Amino acid sequence: MSSTTLGVSFVLVLLAAVAAAAPRKTLPSYVKTCSSSDPKLNECALKHGREIIPRIMKGDPSIRLPVLEPMILDKAEIRTAGGANGGGLHLTCYKCNVHGLSKAKLNDIKIDLKKKHLDLKVFLPSLSVTGKYDVNGRLLLFPVYGKGQANLTLNDLDVTAGLDWKLVKRKGGEFAHVASEQVDFTTSKFSLSLTGLFNGDKALNDNMNAILNESWREVLNDLKPSISDTVGQIIRFTLNNIFDVIPYDQFFPDK
Ligand SMILES: *[C@@H]1O[C@H](CO)[C@@H](O)[C@H](O)[C@H]1NC(C)=O
Ligand SMILES: *[C@@H]1O[C@H](CO)[C@@H](O)[C@H](O)[C@H]1NC(C)=O
């Protein structure tokens, strides 16, 4: 059973609202930067990266950073293409709460300033996305449709992310802009439970949840490229929101 990702569209209305707040042009003092000429740039970034995680969970409107625990996604979509057997799934969640980012452990960071590339490894003991959803399409060949409450949970989540940025000259200086990203992850357990499937037919709904529970590896396999895309887009939107207002040389001063 193969499936490829067609793409995922994703809207962060919340970030747009945050963006309206008057942005500062300098980093807040709790952000410790690393010198671009530091021979141990990766070590410096890892240390400061770890220090900053607990500081940023409540968000910071002055740098257009949304609240991260819980992070609220106004609307997020997962789309799979379906394989030769047809299918494809379109799942949208509305005002979803993402819980678990505050427990993130930064395991590795590698920065290549010349190539404008960053690699990250992050571990999350548990990450849950809960909220209202609607779904339509096929999952493991089973037709599935309905709307209600969803809970998608990932345990022991190891995320690797690669980010490429470019520099954009604008009034006010030079700004970084994340142009592309690659995200992959492994997890010890994926669970997805849905209420309200099949126009409220409880027997069919229970049956689907049992399938989701028993065949979670296959389900995850189908959804993984799309979930990775969505995670990558969230990272990109969030970073660009900040990069748009703070000149690049503030992040890596050549002190
Ligand atoms: C979501 O599911 C996980 C794992 O089953 C559970 O620990 C968590 O409490 C659930 N969250 C909500 C909001 O129901
Ligand atoms: C999920 O499956 C496991 C075994 O694979 C079983 O022990 C557990 O009771 C199931 N949970 C639900 C909610 O069906």
Automatic annotation (TrEMBL):
The question of whether Transcription regulation is a record keyword is answered with: no
Q: Does the keyword Metal-binding apply?
A: no
Q: Which Gene3D superfamilies match?
A: Haemolymph juvenile hormone binding protein (3.15.10.30)
Signal peptide limits: 1-21
Record keywords, A-Z: Biological rhythms, Signal
Q: Which GO terms describe its biological process?
A: circadian rhythm
Span-the-membrane segments of this chain are: none
Source organism superkingdom: Eukaryota
Give Gene Ontology CC terms.
extracellular space
The entry sums up its family as follows: Belongs to the TO family.
UniProt-recorded name of the protein: Uncharacterized protein
Species this chain originates from: Riptortus pedestris
